[in-house]
Amino acid sequence: MDTAGISADRREYYEKIRRHGCAPLWENLEYLVTPEPVITSVANLWDYSELREDLLHSANLISTAEAERRVLMLENPALEGNCSITESLFAGLQLIMPGEVAPAHRHSPAALRFIIEGSGGYTSVNGEKTFMEPGDFIITPSWTWHDHGNEGSEPVVWMDGLDLPLVRNIGAVFLERYAEEQFPAGPPPGDSLARYGSNMRPVGEVLENLNSPIFSYPYAKSRETLENLRKSSEWDPYHGLKLEYIDPTSGGPAMATLSTFLQLLPKRFKTEKYQTTENVVYSVIEGSGRTIVGEGDDAKTMEWQNQDIFVVPCWYPHRIEADDEAILFSFSDKVVQTKLGLWRERRGNA
Ligand code: GTQ
Fold it and tell me: Looking at the domain covering 44-347, what would its CATH class be?
C-alpha cells in the first residue's frame, strides 16, 4: 500500500486494523482489479549460442549426482530470484554429460522436456526409458518417477518446462527421492508410444489419468505431420500452421497443467498482431526470425535462431516474423486457464 498522501486519521486507522489482520481494500482496488492484465514479467530472449559455453562449463563445477538436476534456470529479468520465467511457469536448460545419471525422484509439479542438442540421452518415466533426439517432446507427469541419463558420447541438453511457480503458489509441492539411483526397468523403450500412439489403444484398459499415456512425441513424426498438413492447410494469420500435442485417449491437451504446441511458419511469413492471456515459452527448433512484442515506443524486437528460447508473457501484443522457414515448439499455461474459465485471446484489433 502506498501510504503517501493518506491523512493521519486514516493512517492511524489502517495501523489499528492491521493489528487485527485487516487491510483496506479501497486503497488497493485499482492495483488489484485492473481493466486488463498487469503483470511483472517481461518478454525476453535467451541466445543459446551465448549461453552454451556457460552451460557446458557447469559440468566442470558440479556433477549431475551432486546437483540432482544440473539446470540453468531461465529467469525472467523482471522476476530475478523467483526461479520463474513467467508468473506461472518455470523453464531451464538441463545438461547431462556422457555416463551421468540424474537420480530418480518424483514430484507433484509436472515437467516437460524439449530436446535441444545431443544424442543418446534418455528419460525414464516409471521405468520406461525414452531415448531423446533434438526436437523430441517428452513428458514426466505429476508424481511419476523419473531419472535421466546419457548413454551417448556428447553432452545432451534439453529445455525443462514445469508448472512449478503455479503449484508453489497453490502450495501443493511434494517431492520424493527414490532409494536407488535409477527406478527399476519397466516396459521396454517405446512401449507407451506403441500402445497409444497409433490411433488405437488396448481394449479393456481403463485410463483415469489426467495426462497422456504417451511419454514421448518424437520430432520426426510431428515434423512430418506439419510437412503433410502444409500442403492442404490455410495459413492461420496469427499462428501460421500450429498444432497442439494431445492425449490420444481424451483428445485434450497432453498434460494436465501445460499446453504444448509445434508450429511452422513458412519463409518470410509474418503473423498478425495477437494477444493472449497465456504465458508462452518458445523453443526454436529450426529457422530464424524475430518476435516483436509491444507497440510503438514500447516495442521490443527479439531476433532468434534455432536453439534459442524466448518468452512472451500474458497479454503482450506480439507478432512473429520468419526469415527462413521456422519451426517453433512452445508451452504455456493455457490448459489451466481454460479449465478455470480465464483464457482469452485478442486477434488483431478486434
Ligand atoms: O528433471 O526432475 O528443471 O525436478 C527442475 C526440477 C528439472 C527434473 C528441473 C526438476 C527437474
Answer: mainly beta
Residues with CB under 6 A from ligand 1: 69, 71, 92, 94, 107, 111, 146, 160, 162
Length of the chain: 350
Q: Which residue ranges make up each domain of the chain?
A: 44-347
Residue 243's pLDDT band (boundaries 50, 70, 90)? very high
Which residue's entry shows cell 516409471? 126
**Exposed (0-12), middle (13-18) or buried (19+): which is 153, by Cβ within 10 Å?**
exposed
As a dihedral over the C-alpha atoms of residue 157, residue 69, residue 329, residue 333, rounded to 10 degrees, the angle is: -170
Residue 4 in this model has a pLDDT that exceeds 70: yes
How far apart are the C-alpha atoms of 245 and 251, rounded to whole Å? Answer: 9
- Say what the pLDDT of residue 37 is: 97
> Rounded CA gap, 54 and 72, in Å?
9
Q: Which comes out higher in pLDDT, residue 50 or 207?
A: 50
Ligand 1 pocket check: which of 114, 162, 258, 331 to mutate, most ligand atoms within 8 Å of Cβ? 162
Atom of ligand 1 nearest to the CA of 90: 3
Residue 228 is classified by DSSP as H
Q: Whole-prediction pTM value?
A: 0.96
- Looking from the CA of 123 toward its CB, the CA atoms found within 13 Å total 30
pLDDT band at 5 (very low <50, low <70, confident <90, very high): confident
CA of 189 from ligand 1 middle (Å) equals 21
Q: How far apart are CA 222 and CA 150, in angstroms?
A: 24
Q: Are 325 and 287 in contact (CB under 8 A)?
A: yes
Specify burial of residue 160 (Cβ count, 10 A radius: 0-12, 13-18, 19+).
buried
Task: Evaluate whether 291 touches 318 at the Cβ level (below 8 Å).
Answer: yes
The pLDDT > 70 percentage for the chain reads 99
Distance 101 CA to ligand 1 centre (A): 13
Q: Which atom of ligand 1 is nearest to the CA of 113?
A: 1
Which helix (H) or strand (E) segment holds residue 318: the answer is: strand 318-322
